[in-house]
Amino acid sequence: MAEIKAVIFDLDGTLYNKSHLHIRIILNQLIRGRLIMLKRERDVRAMLKGQYFGNEDAFYDNFFSNIGKNNARKWYFDCYMPQMAKVLRKHYNLAPWVKEYIMPLREKGVKIVVFSDYGFVEEKLNAIGFDLQLADYLFDAPSLGGLKPCREAFMNVCKKIGIEPQHCLMIGDRDDTDGDGAKSVGMRFVKVEKASKPMEMDVSGS
Prior knowledge:
By secondary structure, the chain is of the alpha/beta class. The chain has two domains: 6-18 and 93-191, HAD superfamily/HAD-like (Rossmann fold, 3-Layer(aba) Sandwich); 21-91, no CATH class. 47% of the residues lie in helices and 11% in strands. It is built from eight helices and five strands. The protein has a five-stranded parallel sheet. The N and C termini lie close together (6 Å).
């Protein structure tokens, strides 16, 4: 078995327990009269899942075009994503195992990566109390050209960190996004449930 040189963590549902997050976001947008926009965003996200658009600009052009609202871009970047970070800061915390799991990996020289399907990665990590110095790289799927499980997005992560997929381990909470994307490029995958600690895995390759 190939040596693990990078561990790639999903964010939502992996680094923190996202129970009731969807309900809290719905209530947040309901108060602001943006529930229809939220539904369109979720529908379009599901529709574009796994498709590759080449780059961030092309992805967002398609994303907002399909949402079909004139102010969708402004709502998303100025309201929805900042409000999500505020909800996280108020109600959610980093899973207690994360730091103790990461530190031994870093001491072995394993690269630590966070790869989220959403933008605002740094803001969301700060909101849940993740020390940004624990990660070597932060990525979001739109900036890589497509939402998980887009194969090209996973390959782009590997290219940017300079490590072949067979030497990477993906840790995430969803088989259909994190798991399918990882497996499509030959990357190992470990699933977690409600931000539980991943099973112990020897990263030496032995």
